[in-house]
Write a structure and sequence with these properties.
single chain; 102 residues; alpha+beta; 5 helices
Length: 102
């Protein structure tokens, strides 16, 4: 009888290896920023923002509810980038483009 844990580990290793070979590991980390956004920025910022996408060059696009919040978040961008780098190492987020939500 085979050990299922060994098979799962082997599958996980194979998937990790495939993603690395295809150059997708970084893009996967970038995409995880979208999912992890509330944890990374906290509940107050998460309530007034919505992460939209991440470009391959590391630009994170985020919709913001009001122009007042957009101005405030622009001032906090360095701190937010630091939180992203700590929370999702390897994501390579270099800048944030804030845009007013429609």
């Amino acid at each position: 009888m085979s050990d299922k844990r060994h098979s799962a580990t082997s599958l996980g290793d194979a998937l990790r290896s495939f993603l690395e070979q295809q150059g997708l590991t970084g893009r996967l980390a970038q995409a995880s920023v979208l999912e992890e956004w509330p944890r990374l920025v906290g509940p107050t910022v998460a309530r007034v923002t919505s992460p939209l996408s991440v470009a391959a060059d590391g630009t994170l696009f985020v919709a913001v509810r009001t122009s007042a919040w957009m101005n405030e978040l622009s001032l906090l961008e360095g701190e937010i980038l630091d939180a992203i780098r700590r929370g999702v190492p390897g994501a390579g987020i270099r800048r944030i483009r804030w845009q007013l939500a429609r």
